[in-house]
Amino acid sequence: MEAIFKIFRDAHIGGNGYQLSDTLLPISPSEEPGRLRNFFNSTNAANVKGDIQYNVLYDRQSTLRLSTEEGKAWVDVYTAYWAAAGEIIKAEDAQKTNSPINWVAVYETWKEMTNAIIRGYSTGCFEAWTIPCLYTSGKYLRIFAIKADAAGGNADKAMDFQDDFNPDTGKNEKLEDAARVLNRMFQLCVSDRAPLEESRKWGIYNIVNLLFKTYFKLNSVALSKNIIRALQASRGDIPDVESFPKSHQVTFKYYMGVIQFLEEDYKQAINPIPYVFDHI
Fold first, then answer.
1. Where does residue 47 rank: exposed (0-12), middle (13-18), buried (19+ CB within 10 A)?
2. Residue 40's closest CA among 5, 3, 77, 89?
3. Residues in CB range of 222: below 8 A, 6 or more apart
4. CA-based angle 31:115:83, to the nearest 5?
5. 211-231 burial, b if ≥16 CB within 10 A, otherwise e?
6. Going by fewer Cβ within 10 Å, which terminus of the chain is more open, N or C?
7. Is 211 in contact with 240 (CB distance < 8 Å)?
């Protein structure tokens, strides 16, 4: 547990959102392959909340001092993360023995963590620099939803994290549920009224891209129009797309081009193609 919370403290002291989001990955980093399992095995269901509270709020050796409200919000996030880690480890172990993987349990526990993160922002506990935590939780929420729908929660499915967005014809109960959660993330970002330098609006295009991918997977591309309309309505309050990270820009422009192509607006559809190919 100490390894993750050392990174947590360093990220807060340095205001590094991407470093912070790395503590919420569902996979261990290559340089520390046992981190997820070690984190899960470091406590148990009876003690997990107290152990996390100590690391976040009461470790006197730490120079980090969070408010009680923010600290409790992070405790909720990491307690849910611990539960999700347990289900992910079960999935890893099941794959090794060719046993069925319960992807529904993985999805549901990951969704609990994602909801805890959303609550942290909606209650004003988390600052905007931590927004990459939304990126990580949203990305894997979508991936786990796809796996849960494809496997029915029981059939074995490889422990890979491919970001497939091709439509299929199967049931998509969990992915539809994930789309609703992602939409809450989008509303959380687009409705933020804080000054731009400390606004969640800087997370908009990452979340929009996740929504586009999800709607394409659901074969519900028309739902993307609601997002596009919301962006247009907030145009005066959102920085120009060129102000965002290149990865956000390229994915957004790609999907906008595809959507315009599907609407037979070929003149507009072709505009982003050179930019997208130049930055792949």
1. exposed
2. 89
3. 215
4. 50
5. bbbbbbbbeebeebeebeebb
6. C
7. no
Model pLDDT for residues 145-195, shown as the tens digit of each residue: 999 999 874 444 455 555 544 444 458 999 999 999 999 999 999 999 999
| Distance separating alpha carbons of residues 218 and 182, to the nearest angstrom | 14
d(CA 84, CA 71): 20
CA 265 to chain centre: 32
The tokens for 10 are: 């360093």
Q: What is the CA radius of gyration of the chain?
A: 19
DSSP 8-class letter at 220: -
C-alpha–C-alpha distance, residues 91 and 139, integer Å: 18
Contacts of residue 32, Cβ cutoff 8 Å, sequence gap at least 6 = 3
Short-list 77, 96, 75, 83, CA closest to 39: 83
What pLDDT score does 171 carry?
84
CB proximity list for 250: less than 8 A, separation 6 or greater: 275, 276, 279, 280
Q: Domain limits of the chain?
A: 2-239, 240-280
User: Please, are residues 99 and 153 in contact by the beta-carbon 8 Å criterion?
Assistant: no
